[in-house]
Structure formats: C-alpha cells, structure tokens
Amino acid sequence: MPDILERIERAYSFIRSKTDSRPGTGLILGSGLGDFCDSFDKSVVIPFGEIPDFPAATVEGHRGAFVIGNCGGKSVAALRGRLHYYEGYSQSEITMPVRVMKKLGVETLIITNAAGGINLSFSEGALMLISDHINYSGSNPLIGKNLDEFGPRFPDMSDVYSKEARVKIKEMAEDSGINLYEGVYAMYSGPSFETPAEIRFLRLIGADAVGMSTVPEAIVARHCGMEVIGISLITNMAAGILEKKLSHLEVIETANRVKASFARVLDLAVSLG
Ligand code: HPA
C-alpha cells in the first residue's frame, strides 16, 4: 500500500477526473444525516469503494461516498457517511477525505455527528454547536511523519471551532426559531458505548456530549488551515442518565425524527462558507 500522501494524491486525481468543481465548503454528514446531500443540485457521487487505495466505510447508516454538488448556490463537497477509528483504520486514514477536500479547494469544513448528551439540561433531539473538544480517543491523526505540505508539526488547537461562525449561526438559528445549545464534545473510540462511570468522568472533565468521531477530522482540518464548524445532534442521553439501554437503532431513529431542523441549521452553516 502506498503511503498516506500518495493515497491522498491518487484519490484527489481520481475525483478531479470526475468533476472540475472547486467546492469552497466541505460537509461531513454523521449517522442518519446523509440524506442532506440528496437535495444538492447537479451532484456527482463518487463511492469511497471506487477511489483507488481509499478506505471503505463499513457501518450501517454510513454509506460512504463523496458527493460534490450545489447547495443553496454554493459548491459543496460532502461526505455521505464517514470513516470511523473503530472500524480499524488509523486516524490518519479516516481523515484522508479531509485532506482530499483541502486539495479540492475547501476552506470551511462543517462536521456533523450524532452524539450522546452528557449535559443534564440536554434532551434527545437537541442540537449542539461544538465550542471545543476533548480528544479522549487514545490517538491523534497527526501521529507519524508530518505532512509539511498541509501544515506544521505542532499545530495550535486553541480555537478549533470558529467563534465567529458560531456567533453568526446562533443568531440566524434564533431568528428561525431553532434552539441551539453550545458545548464541549468528547471523543471516545467506541464501538462499545461508554459505561455510566465513564460518562460521570467525562462530565467531571468538562464534556457536554460524547461521540465516536469528529475530533480527528477537526484536528486535520485545523492542521491544514481550514475554518471548522461542528454540529452535534443529541440522539440519546449518554449511558446511565436515563433508565434505558443505548442502541445504534435509537441513534438512527432520533436522527430521522429531527432531520428537518438539523437540515435548516446545516443550510445556515453552508450559507456562511
Ligand atoms: N455515545 C457515543 N457515541 C454516540 C452516542 C453515545 O451515547 N450517541 C450517538 N453516538
């Protein structure tokens, strides 16, 4: 297998051979949220499986494809379904699509996810703008040789999720009558859900929501200088908070239930890019 840089170059050339659009905005659609890109105009769909040397997505609700099209008059590159660390890939592999997006011209990356609510004022179906993250995944996507053409060895992470964009999205959401919380997202590797003790620990260290994605993508996006916007859909309260067990089915069901207001927030976020 060629090294990561070569794989990124090959994936980029392959996608370039299918479209000459220069998307300025990237979008990563989390569990149950992939439908958002079905409304794109003139879209080109490139399944991960067709891209040479590209990792394939394996999770139900995460059909993996690059979808490049127009959304609200903007050219957008979306990932319909993402790659996860728990699928067995390294974090540098699961973030290859972010670097491919950078090469395609993306400057603003909107990362979405389904997450468990830790903050007790949240409830199922709530939407949370990510203000910061805790990398509790046990790894980092920048481990290994630094790819100098993308960014520095020791990138600053003091302002990962654009404050300016958050203020604007909150204002616009309020005007449209959508309640948006703001909070800290912690990444746990999965694929098992957390235990109640782990959730109490994550609350103590300052997390408001927990999930199995987003953090590696945000780190790689900031490494290469993109502006990042993160939005979590709280599909369930985290383990031990309510008297019920967690399941992936519930995650998908809640995502389906609130997809309409989620799509409105995404439209707002895309309009900023
Ligand atoms: N934990 C981790 N990941 C998740 C959860 C959760 O409770 N809900 C949706 N994704």
Verbal overview:
There is one protein chain. By secondary structure, the chain is an alpha/beta fold. The protein has one domain (4-272): 3-Layer(aba) Sandwich (Rossmann fold). 30% of the residues lie in helices and 25% in strands. The chain has a five-stranded mixed β-barrel, surrounded by four helices. α1 crosses α3 (96-104). The longest helix has 14 residues, at 259-272. The mean pLDDT is 93. It binds hypoxanthine.
Seen as an oligomer or otherwise, the chain set is single chain
Run of helices and strands: HEEEEHHEEHEHEHEHH
Record field, number of beta strands = 9
Q: List the ligand species.
A: hypoxanthine
CATH fold naming: Rossmann fold
Residue share in β-strands? 15-25%
CATH class: Alpha Beta
Please tally the helical runs, counting DSSP H or I stretches of 4 or more residues. Answer: 8
CATH homologous superfamily label: Nucleoside phosphorylase domain
Total discrete domains: 1
Mean pLDDT: 93
